[in-house]
Amino acid sequence: MEVLRYAAFSASPDGGNPAGVVLDAAGVPEDLMLATAAQVGYSETAFLTARGGSEFDVRYFSPRAEVSFCGHATVASAVAYAQRRGTGELLFHTKAGAVAVRTADAGGQIRATLISVTPRTVALPETGLRALLAALRWHASDLDLALPPRVAYAGAWHPVIAVADRARLAGLDYNFDALAALMAAHDWTTVDLIYRAPGGHTFWSRNPFPPGGVVEDPATGAAAAAFGGYLRELGLISPPAQITIHQGDDMGRPGVLRVDIPQAGGIEVSGTAVPIPGSGTP
């Protein structure tokens, strides 16, 4: 089984979010997928099984568990496939639903764009918010209430918590065990922590990911799609619109996610991906 390693949402292998990619996982049992993801050690590894043509069944595993959908591993997989078979349209059948992906040459680099499943946004109960703030070691006074706390979905569930001060985001120091237990109890994949820059279309994000055994996800495509749906559903942006999310800078792995928000339907998340030196079997 060949395991490729790519950095997604970056033009450099030192930036973005590393993902494992298995382009041919036919016949690989679930326990071996999980063991491989644990050995690779990235936040997710994607396992593709061809259905025929340009359609694939895709499963995503963190080092600890399977997740329903992963945006950065989708982008990494699409770019890896395009570098071997050429750019074009793909359809990934995930546990969250069908996700269309297209790849194209963008000035010598391959850019992948995924179209999420239909997003949803639900209320975050006050008790859940208080528990989240306690685990994050934040206070209600830190929040930017123009972006109200909610739980958003575009293939996986993510609480959206916005702060008014960029420095508060940069100084993140959370209680790993407390946040892990809270997220496991609510089936939250990551927590999408947001700062909105002046102008309203540029955001900075951090995504703790303790359920996956990872302190933080450097670039989270699923959360970016969920956040795009959140902005649309709450009327915080006028679609069609495009936003830019910077993530990973505070970890030393800067990445850029472009999010296109149509008037209806799935959210588009785009980025480049590059191989990480040393790709091969783990």
CATH class of the largest domain: Alpha Beta
* Radius of gyration (Å): 17 Å
- Helical proportion? 10-25%
CATH topology of the largest domain: Diaminopimelate Epimerase, Chain A, domain 1
Q: Low-confidence spans: pLDDT under 50, at least 5 residues?
A: none
Distance between the termini: 9 Å
Number of strands: 17
Quick check: average pLDDT?
96
CATH architecture of the largest domain: Roll
Q: Looking across the biggest beta sheet, what order are the strands in?
A: 1-2-3-4-6-7-8-17
Question: What class do helices, strands and sheet pairing give?
Answer: alpha+beta
User: How does the overall form come out from the CA principal axes?
Assistant: globular
CATH-assigned homologous superfamily of the largest domain: Diaminopimelate Epimerase, Chain A, domain 1
If helices are DSSP runs of H or I spanning 4 or more residues, what is the number of helices?
Answer: 6
Total domain modules: 2
Q: Spell the H/E element sequence.
A: EEHEEEHEEEEHEEHHEEEHEEE
Strand content: 35-45%
Please summarize the sheet with the most strands. 8 strands, mixed, barrel
